[in-house]
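Q: For a teaching session next week I want to show students how multiple molecules come together into a single three-dimensional assembly. I've collected the sequence lines for a complex. Could you give me the predicted structure tokens for the whole thing so I can convert them for display?
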Amino acid sequence: MSKIKLPLRDIEFALFELFHFEEHYADYCPSLDRSLTKALLNESARFCEDILAPLSASGDTEGCRLVDGEVITPAGFKTAYQQYCDAGWPSLARSAEFGGQGLPQSLGIVMNELSATANYAWTMYPGLSQGAMHTIESHGSDFQKQTYLPALISGEWTGTMCLTEAHCGTDLGLLKTKATPVGDGSFSLTGTKIFISSGDHDLAQNIVHIVLARLPDAPAGTKGISLFIVPKFTVNADGSLGARNGVSCGSLEHKMGIHGNATCVLNFDGAVGTLLGEANKGLHLMFTFMNLARLGAALQGIAHAESGFQAALNYSRERLQGRSLSGAKNPTGVADPIISHPDVRRMLMTQKALSEGMRMMAYFAAKRVDIAQHAATPEKRQMAQDMLSVVTPIAKGFITELGFESASLALQCFGGHGYIKEWGVEQNLRDCRIASLYEGTTGVQALDLLGRKILLSDGKLMDGFTKCIQHFCQDPTNAPELSPYADSLTRLHTEWLGVTQHIGALAQQNPDEVGAASVDYLMYCGYIFMGYLWARAAKTALAALATSSDEQDFYRAKLATARFYFERILPRTLTLVATIKSGANNLMELPAEQFAF
Amino acid sequence: MSKIKLPLRDIEFALFELFHFEEHYADYCPSLDRSLTKALLNESARFCEDILAPLSASGDTEGCRLVDGEVITPAGFKTAYQQYCDAGWPSLARSAEFGGQGLPQSLGIVMNELSATANYAWTMYPGLSQGAMHTIESHGSDFQKQTYLPALISGEWTGTMCLTEAHCGTDLGLLKTKATPVGDGSFSLTGTKIFISSGDHDLAQNIVHIVLARLPDAPAGTKGISLFIVPKFTVNADGSLGARNGVSCGSLEHKMGIHGNATCVLNFDGAVGTLLGEANKGLHLMFTFMNLARLGAALQGIAHAESGFQAALNYSRERLQGRSLSGAKNPTGVADPIISHPDVRRMLMTQKALSEGMRMMAYFAAKRVDIAQHAATPEKRQMAQDMLSVVTPIAKGFITELGFESASLALQCFGGHGYIKEWGVEQNLRDCRIASLYEGTTGVQALDLLGRKILLSDGKLMDGFTKCIQHFCQDPTNAPELSPYADSLTRLHTEWLGVTQHIGALAQQNPDEVGAASVDYLMYCGYIFMGYLWARAAKTALAALATSSDEQDFYRAKLATARFYFERILPRTLTLVATIKSGANNLMELPAEQFAF
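A: Of course. Below is the structure for the complete assembly, covering every listed component.
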């Protein structure tokens, strides 16, 4: 992979110019002014570019090894993690009460994007920790918090989330891991979990597993799942490490990509754990962190779109092949750089429009994560939460699908060279492929969005969202250049409401209509949402160009990309409306046994 | 991967019922009646399922090794190749004059599909041989034919095509490998070729390389390229093997997939070769085999779509997860099979409609390969050749792009399990990704189709194609059930002509309009073409259902799949028309240096 240059200028555009995070932080974290935010971004970017990025390819090649029951991470991972902890990054957005810096979650999300873009497999070690910390912060007893949070927040220990078993992923109601009370208030856990990211490794002294399991008297299905904290090493009363607990890595999964991350089969064999939160409410409690985890998976889409785009752009500027049909662009060279060819530009512009568009989408969500947590009134918090409940499945599903498309286009720009490991774009594509599978597949996100969120609320959860679009389209201060975008969004806004009502009406007759429409509907929402964001970006760029900005090129590029999005990407909604409206029959009529002969 | 079952019933449907190959073969190869064709298909399928398929996963894991300058293929590959030769498969469609069986090329294409589906990496060894044989058959001197063809046709030797160099793939005019006459009529070749599939291996005694190189006095660019035959071992006058020639494998490429195939860097260091065909006409001569090679790459799309679909279908029938929203489908089990869920069906139906549709497209082309070669009159041959010149880039570009989409959907059906090596679908996706890169990227196919074929012929090369569609739509014998398909195709037919004229007009002003529209145009043509084929399949199925066929389920499945195609896949043309018409400006306005800041 060519050396990564984290897109700080674009990040600042989205944060400060588009979404006004400086003003936002003034409400929730007054110390975090623009200058401090930029300083933190710069420092993090330097670490990610200099330390993490060089370990991405070697981490892929070397992978993780299971030696005598212990997982060894690729060379350099441990040292990088130590540097990461020494610089205080794990504690950035964590509670000050237990040693965190108390900065907003949104800033943590942006930082995660940086490290994810530099080295996704490595980022999953501290990434999973954040999930565990968040769950303990939200649902742990004081004792659990005091026992586990300080060392997790410092990064001395890491955490995992142990959900999946061989026979159940999406359908967690089927899980079998048992937790038996041993009489002293603790539990003995027995069962096997699979696909446990960062499940064992040599980066930290201890690993704190958050485990879904069933109590002996638990009701069947999802209503009988409880959460437990199971540390790799038990913790003594004084906080020192005690005995090795009965949890071990049985094997490492052999995966398509993210080889640098240890994806473990974890055997719990009478492992000692404590109940986290109320018994039998585990699935509900888990969803408090699951939404953040889904935004985290969306960041993976951005990361691979961005790193693929950078590689493809560099290659397309340098690779000389063929002559432009409209006249030589490099007449003294043997051929023109392939970026002269319209179809290469189509691929590059698609990647550019998607990666910048995804970034806007993620930051739009990130701002609402802060508001939902910290706003002064319950109404404001609820409004942000409602918005998030719709934006999260869209962001997770839409961004991970388009991240893969983008990563594949990056590879395509290289021609045959893209298929060879040395350029890094094939790793980027392999690493990327997991994103639309874990933390709920795209199909699961789509059912969550359309079924649980939109239809179950009678469309009310769409309100905040559609109002944003209406507000933009009807803003009398819009420059005339924005008219085509506002017109297009106005039309889509009406169409969107109609399509939603159409599905709602059909679903009353046949519940399969929801599943039949769901993924196309999620993508349709995503394209409209991203259209709204690109229209806003164009508005911001036009305003900046109207001043005497010395970055005319930057803002003009935003306008060109917005135009590209509306002319070349947004028309995908035309197909999606047609397929959504085609209904469930064309999916359901064929008996399962007649799919092949 | 679950055990592959080659889709013989579907192959027979396409061959005999849809395209009437029995009648076709009666014209060109009377011995090849339906019963013999089916016997050959069955025998080949048994070999592919029993011998080749089990070596696919192990070939991926083991890969090829370069030991002391010689390439070692994965365990079992050599034995399988020996069995393949012993059964006479390499000679099937080759000239009887040199030991071939003289059966039609189309049958060879179907056989290649079978082995490609079972084990793509292995299939590339005999596959590249076919390219070399075809080139020598078409352009070799009698002496060259006598020297090389018998051992190639028996499979004792294999062949390669050596085109690419590090600095030139698409733009072969830049190639540097030199061929210097040594005075005895032979040439000394020096240069380095990369990405040479099957470039060295241990399956055969000798390897016959067809090499693009430049004579000392050659004009610059594509008009100064000549073809040479360069064997790994020189051949003595009596046909026995002579000295090791100056060509060697410098290294093996590290690739994303097709690990079982040796992709070599080949160093030519004063290697002895003979000129093949006329000097400086190499690029032109190469295209006689390139069109067949492109159909071969299209088969790869079918192969991975088919094998992915089979794996996903088996898994979706067995994996129990969640309950159907429209009521339990497996009430006595812990959950319903995931094929009960509409979105899983959407993914499966997409794979089914695409893999069967691709197969029809490939056989449509294959029939015309026979006609172009053997028809009684030059008019008929030319008509078939014209059709092929349009169908080939569509089949190559469209099928390889959709093969990848299909393989990715197959993986998606597995959820997180799809990302793990043991199920085989991640290998299927990795193996598949090369298909839209080699033998000309999708962008190259698209420029060939729109620029060189359609616009340069003033649309004339479209004629045969559009007449087929018109003929179908206007057939008074069409059953009423076909009306929606005929109506849809009639509308698209008109739209298609309009879109083509639109681009043609724009291109007169700005040649970049061709490249800007080209890939979307290719895909647009592909969807219409496949729509035509699905409509014909529906017609054939309706006719069979009107008889007292005892395969009612099979034909009803065809009708359901045709309906799915028209309702869920063909609407993609809506987006493509919009993006094609959006023109070149949205791609070309951004200066190359302003794609990132």
